[in-house]
Amino acid sequence: MNQKQLSRVILAPVISEKSTLAAEKGAAVVFRVLPEAEKDQIRRAVELMFKVEVDSVRVLNVKGKNKRTGRFIGKRSDWKKAYVKLKPGHDINFGTA
To answer: How many domains does the chain have?
Structure first.
């Protein structure tokens, strides 16, 4: 993949209590990624965008919840989440990135 395609792999960082704890404990950063993205593509995209070295990548598919508005029932979309563990000495600061 070229740089333009790699820049589209990462959609957004996931900011939640669980992802903040993961960042504090194990230097892992959580991203929302394309559903068809592979671990190697995610690793290269993070290294390209943030100029850091990646130690490991873990991915999981998040199932969309069923939601109800009045009498109508709908479903949120499924999405993919990636836990990216950085090598020691590397850090991503979203305030400056």
So the answer is: 1
